Amino acid sequence: MKKTARAHTNIALVKYWGKADEELIIPMNGSVSLTLDHFYTDTTVEFDPALTEDIFCLDGKQKHDPKVAKFMNLVRNLAKKETFARIDSINHVPTAAGLASSASAYAALALSATSAAGLNLTRKDLSRLARRGSGSATRSIFGGFVEWHKGTDDLTSFAEPIEEETDWEICMIAIVINGHEKKISSRHGMQQVVKTSPYYHEWVKTAEEDLKLVKQAIKNRDFSLLGEVSEASAMKMHALNMSAKPHFSYFMPESILAMQKIEELRSQNIPCYYTMDAGPNVKVICEKQNVAFIIDELSKLFAKENLLVANPGPGARLI
């Protein structure tokens, strides 16, 4: 009745931005991500017949979170049980700051809760379940490069690995500009964009094209293509935000500074690209051989402790 799971964050190379179904969290477009070793969530779930409600603690502090309670009801329905649980979650990643903490959080919760409830779900079914907590969590069930098939309903929307044990020495450097919770949640931002951006139709169309190109880049080990498409996908996503009514942005001045620095390095023939999610933090996509040089260059602008290097990481597992 008590299990602990660890799941790692993932950063989308081809972004998901917008839902076709808000309740089931079915995306408007497919996506591809890289699971990272540096950022992860550990979650322990223990079912206790003495409890009259779920008790959720995040980083040692008890929190009231209706989303967690709703997710636990899904697990109870699957397990055909009514027992409430203690949920203790430790985030080794800044929460709600655009570093994919919700992805690792719900992937870890999906595995720990179902295991504690006596279920033994396939990873495909875990992926489907994790999606109900946070869309990007569907990808954190797996390691390495992962594709989320958008699907059309609960059964057909799930992730699967493209290359889980990758030997490609690819890295991401997270430039932590602001680790605080963002003012506009991803969920709210997406809703606003889908409803009001005049460019949204084109986003869906080009996202599908980007997905094919990134899968091709992974297969052929084409780093330039991978970087170019990933950077373009991120910038198109943020352009949507600025075209919404009312418009909004996750950028901070330091975000722009980081992007300009990466473009400068690229002009000096250092292959590196940037991506950003719903938050101000910039992730630099590069190859392992160039990490030390890029860190040295970024250290001229940012504190070294805010430059975090991540490699391809594993999928969710019990610990």
TrEMBL record:
One GO term of the biological process aspect: isopentenyl diphosphate biosynthetic process, mevalonate pathway
Entry's transmembrane regions: none
Enzyme class: lyase
EC number per UniProt: 4.1.1.33
Keyword Transmembrane listed: no
Domain Mvd1 C-terminal intervals: 173-305
Domain Diphosphomevalonate decarboxylase-like N-terminal: 7-159
Gene Ontology CC: one annotated term: cytosol
Key words, A-Z: ATP-binding, Lipid biosynthesis, Lipid metabolism, Lyase, Nucleotide-binding
Gene3D superfamilies: 3.30.230.10, GHMP kinase, C-terminal domain (3.30.70.890)
InterPro entries: GHMP_kinase_C_sf, Mev_decarb, Mev_diP_decarb, MVD-like_N, Mvd1_C, Ribosomal_Su5_D2-typ_SF, Ribsml_uS5_D2-typ_fold_subgr
GO molecular function: ATP binding; diphosphomevalonate decarboxylase activity
Similarity-based family: Belongs to the diphosphomevalonate decarboxylase family.
Name of the protein described by the UniProt record: diphosphomevalonate decarboxylase
Organism annotation: Ligilactobacillus ruminis
